[in-house]
Amino acid sequence: MALFRCGLKFRALSAALRNNVACMSSLPQPIKNPEIKYNKVFINNDFVDSQSGKTFPTINPATGEVICQVAEGDKKDVDLAVKAAQDAFRLGSPWRRMDASERGVLLNKLADLIERDRVYITSLETLDNGKPYHVAFNADLNLVIKCYRYYAGWADKIEGKTVPVAGDFFAYTRREPVGVCGQIIPWNFPLLMQAWKLGPALACGNVVVMKVAEQTPLTALYIAHLAREAGFPPGVINIIPGYGPTAGGAIASHMDVDKLAFTGSTEVGQIVAQAAAQSNLKRVTLELGGKSPNIVLADADMEQAVETSHFALYFNQGQCCCAGSRTFVEEKIYDEFVERSAERAKKRTVGNPFDLTNEQGPQVDQEQTDKIMSYIKSGKEQGAKLVAGGNKMGDKGYFIEPTVFADVKDEMKIAQEEIFGPVQTILKFKDMDELIERCHKTIYGLAAAVQTKDLEKALHLSNTLRAGTVWVNCFDVFDASMPFGGYKMSGNGRELGEYGLEAYSEVKSVVIKIPQKNS
Amino acid sequence: KAAQDAFRLGSPWRRMDASERGVLLNKLADLIERDRVYITSLETLDNGKPYHVAFNADLNLVIKCYRYYAGWADKIEGKTVPVAGDFFAYTRREPVGVCGQIIPWNFPLLMQAWKLGPALACGNVVVMKVAEQTPLTALYIAHLAREAGFPPGVINIIPGYGPTAGGAIASHMDVDKLAFTGSTEVGQIVAQAAAQSNLKRVTLELGGKSPNIVLADADMEQAVETSHFALYFNQGQCCCAGSRTFVEEKIYDEFVERSAERAKKRTVGNPFDLTNEQGPQVDQEQTDKIMSYIKSGKEQGAKLVAGGNKMGDKGYFIEPTVFADVKDEMKIAQEEIFGPVQTILKFKDMDELIERCHKTIYGLAAAVQTKDLEKALHLSNTLRAGTVWVNCFDVFDASMPFGGYKMSGNGRELGEYGLEAYSEVKSVVIKIPQKNS
């Protein structure tokens, strides 16, 4: 398993990306033209055309060219999928009768199959999303496999309690599956977002109707095929490729979907949450946007802080909900930090994601590219100082230069709104209390980070910042066992860890009268 | 604003030791015990529930709820987690912040306790809108909370109407979490307002049409009494009332006869009269609604075997009413009546019964009256309802989670589960030189 040894730590990964060493030699070569095997709607363990017969193209963002057509699911397909899911969930069904531990066995089998086909799957992800192959292989796929294995372990540990109530009663709770779980996932980490959703849902015994992003439907469909091979019964997992307003909206409003999990923008999160309440009050969890502060104190190791802050913003082409997109630097070291950051950004290698020497690939599509370029324009117009990048790159595909703005003020759009691209904004601060207030002047609260050697400052900031995850002297360190989610308008609820199971159970209390209670 | 100020970093409430929050909650329980007679009398005056029931049931549960959550205050724990790599990682369970809480009129003191207990135990600050029908006891409790020593701004209570005061809370951009108990219809409205404004976290406790199943092998006398209590408790004004009594065919006629007899014996009148089992409904609007359901029951062909009329010229009294030969599609079998109207339906086959129990938007509670072990466990494990009672009904405890499946609600109150909604989980990951297990 030498292939996987080097991929585990993000700092090691970051260093490796910078030095282009170590991991590359043991990394298996990508398949640059992976064959597209599955591009249809997946219901009841079958791949079928959409009810309308319509298809949509999925694009290779490195070239702007169409990879293939994919079946376009809409309300009718969602209806069929929900019915299939309901049937798989009926009392007495194979899935409902299955031992909990067996659910764990199936999840581990799925992880095994992903490991078996890791090179193909990674290549497909790189083709459809544009993220560099070596990052997808070492980071995304590593976390995906671990997520399924982590939740495999939870399957037979979804426990209720016996409770010593007052009176002559025997009382207990059961944690039952919620039922039909509608899951809408985004395009920035297609495989990983699918794993974060399927892992806990299936561990708890639910059935799933998943809408995948129109920009990146291919890997999710391949995973569906593997799930079928692993032995998940028909109807337990159903996948609908399609668009948000149509297929996604149908799920959010469906009267027979019991729970909705949505990852995407805050704006759309508000729309689906309202649709969920208006239809049947289905339970809702949301993972939305962010404008996370990354704080660099004067005592931090300058070289590490620059590199960590660079990684915090540019990872995944800047397309992370939790990107460190407001870099707050202490006045004393500001100028040096800006200079080093600009230098680092200029050194960042951008290009064909299948080329193992590239750190950055294209943005996912034209729409995102236009949005990012418009933010760059706004940064210049509002008076921020452009110290690196600022332009698109090349004629084909959606490449943008790693861009750095300095002298950024809190009120500027680039400091308030989520850019979701390779644009680093560096702000200056002096006073700690004022800093905390400035960090909080946002509708978001997804993540934060502190770069410092000082124990008290590290603990004070991490304990007081209102953010779902706080990283200290690192960034984007994820683990299937650590809950992730937003304060405020960055989301509702948590994914991963034991906390991630809460949303996927429905608690039932049972109280039985007995002749005589004894403790 | 007052709540936000009480919640600011460095405030007395934020700096208070967690165990001290528990001391305050216990003090509040002490003061309620001290003033129990006065408080109960006020509740009876404002709500109409019989004094002896309010004293023994409501106040008992209220005091226990505050003490139960007092015990949890210093046990709101995060975890340290063995993540991959050279990191020290932990979670913290922080207070959510400003909690908007909207409570109903059917159990004014108890609904207030269910809301304040977990919220305060977890260190939150509260803005509570009390029902316009029954604002008085909640305001007295606020006075006791002040006496107990809760800092200014931690608890704030707004008497007022739903669409105005309640709506303002649901849509407020600076309220972090909303807890609402009331009708399903209004629950949908506030949940949408919450999402449209600032995506505040939402928990809901809504309506129900809970099935109470009587099997042929049940003790007849006990089953009749339990089923009577299941419906008529609190003048039928319970979200979890056993409002669809499913009786096995074999014993149906006898059960109906005995239930009608029991209903006719139910004593109704002045709630301060200790011999009365039932008081008035809470207001004119509820009374009109209930009478209209009684009318609909007659019109749709159910058989009226007891009651059916209003009682007296003053107040909002309704006779204990029983309908037999009720069919699933009738309005009185589908919609929440929230009054003293028992509907008795017949069943034959167990699988068909479970399906009929599930043919509703609700899923709050259910009950089974039987001596048979396998039937009891099968029904309690398969019925999609938040609480299932076996050979009893309306048994509550601060330690047992309560809440609805489906459109009866989102989330659970009480027990350890009841704390989940009142914490915001934070993950912290710190790089260290060398991780060892």
Provide a quick synopsis of the model.
2 copies of one chain form a homodimer. Chain A is α/β, with parallel strands linked by helices and 519 residues long.
Keyword list:
disordered N terminus; 19 helices; alpha/beta; about 525 residues; homodimer; Aldehyde Dehydrogenase, Chain A, domain 1; seven-stranded mixed sheet; Aldehyde Dehydrogenase, Chain A, domain 2
| Number of helices, counting only DSSP H or I runs of 4 residues or more of chain A | 19
Biggest sheet descriptor of chain A: 7 strands, mixed
The figure for the number of domains of chain A is 2
End-to-end Cα distance of chain A, whole Å, is 52 Å
Strand order of the largest sheet of chain A: 14-17-18-13-12-19-20
Based on CA atoms alone, the radius of gyration of chain A comes out at 23 Å
Shape label of chain A: globular
Active site (chain A): 287
Pfam families (chain A): Aldedh
Keywords (chain A): NAD, Oxidoreductase
Organism (chain A): Magallana gigas (Pacific oyster)
